[in-house]
Structures are given as structure tokens and as C-alpha cells.
Amino acid sequence: MSSNNAADKARETADQAKDFAEQGKQTFLEKLKEDGVVNPQGLSKFAFGGLFLAAVPVTSWIAQPNGLLEKAVNGVVSSVAFLGSAGSTSSVAQTGKIAALGALYVTVTYAISGAGSAAGADAGNEGGRDNNHPRAQTQNLKGLPLRLHSAHYNLMEMFPGWAISAALAQAMAPGDQTLINLLGLHVLSKVFVYYPSYLFNIGLPRTLSHVVATASVINVALRLSKKPIL
Hints:
Elements: H1 2-34, H2 49-54, H3 56-62, H4 68-84, H5 97-123, H6 143-172, H7 177-199, H8 203-224
């Protein structure tokens, strides 16, 4: 009889613990809901941050000297120089490559995608774009007009981090080809993959290019942290 009582007591204790845990869970979920969380599972996306760090070694492999990426970066840099000189030269000094990448990135971020964002606001509102209150109209956007707006803002959000890393690289190691390749990897990923993929609503290359672009800038910062300040 005593053994049965002990078993019953153990089951009762286990049930109480289970009920207590369930109540705690419900209380926690209610607190989250009060704080604006309607889909608690969405908070698991925090773990996605680790993917950017995991991709850093991948960007190191992609940015190896004398590889395909370096050829692509040099080709883009030469094209920028050719356009910037009105066709008189495509030659760029080693120490000028970061500036050429910056010229391309600035142009796409603020001129091209900025114009695209304005076009999206104009196309996404029946009365066209209100130049006096343009940002108030963004809440009406959806589909392509919204993607034009959102892609522009993503580039603006990403540019400062790249610009800081690029400025430090230019000051501390202006001729380091690996750093140039990594900075170029970010620019090429954002300009030629991410932005078009966003506009055409192609999810996988957009996500992958964003991860690669972010990881490449982190990689630059980590490498610079090991270099002495001249």
C-alpha cells in the first residue's frame, strides 16, 4: 500500500510540475503578446545572425588572390574608370581601386536605386508621388513599387558599414588585394545580385547575396583589427 501511495504521490508531483510549467509558458506567451509578439516562433530568426559569421571563411575562400573574383573586381574597377574618364582610360592604380568601388556603390545606392524608389512611389499611388510628403505614401505600396522602395533602403542601410570598412582599409592597407577583393565582393553582391533579385522577387539569390555581402564586410573589419595603424 505504501508503495502505491508513493507512486501516486510521484504522479501527482509530476502533474503539478507539468501544470506549473504550462502556466509559466502561457504567462510568458501572454507577456510576449502584450509586447507586440504575435508569432513567437519568429523570434527564432535571431539564430540567423550566426550564419553571417559562419560565412566569413567562405568569403575568404572566394576572395583569394588571383581568383575569379579578383578578375571580376578588376573588370568592374576598370569599367568605372573608363566611364569616369569619358572613355579616355580604363587604368586604375592599385591604391585607387577602393575609391572606384565606392564610386559605383554610391551611384547605385543614392542615384539609381534612389530614382527607382521614387518611381515606385509614383507607380504605387493612384495620384502619383506627392513631392511634398513622399514618405507618407510608402504605406500604400505593395508588389514591385514596395520592392523598389525597400531595396533602396536596404542599400542605404548597408552602405555605411561598407564605407567605414573601406575607409579604414584605404588608410591602413590601401594596396592589400585581398581586402580589395572582399570589399569588391560586397559591392558586386549588392549591386549585381541583391538589387536585381529584390526587384524581380527572387528570394534565394537575394538572401545568399545579402549573407555574402555582410560576411565580407565583417571579414574586412576582422582582418584590419590585426593590422598595425600606420
